[in-house]
Amino acid sequence: MSSFCYCYSTLPPIKSAKNLEVSALSFIFVVYLSKHLIIKQMRQLRIKRVYAPAEEEDGYRILTDKLWPRGMTKSRAAIDKWAKEITPTKSLRQWFGHKRENFPEFTDKYIAELNANPAAPAFAEECLDLLKNDNVTLLYGAKDEQCNHAIVLRDWILGR
Hints:
By secondary structure, the chain is α/β, with parallel strands linked by helices.
């Protein structure tokens, strides 16, 4: 009989998975098989501007914006999925306005929307399943790389 454990860690190192020290910015997949500990590093859940060139290490590319990015062709976007159903609502996006001072409150409100969204848990599970085989990149169109909904979405998925 085997059991599975997903762990996500950020620097500095934390203790997890039966005191296993983890310090990488990636998933660690731990399998316990009859007293043997097997560790497999999983792929990364990344975020990236859709306007940046597609790269092989992006893996499975998911557009997480409600609207198609201005001036972007389908071939240049190179997306595998467009996940409109998990984006912030129009009213929340408009209220946020990509203003840094609104980001903490936006984060709380978007997390509440994700928790209430019936499509969000299935999306998170899909991302976690895809991570078993390849990187997953959440694409967004916002100019600010430090203050956008994809950051919140990634952290919400990893915190599940």
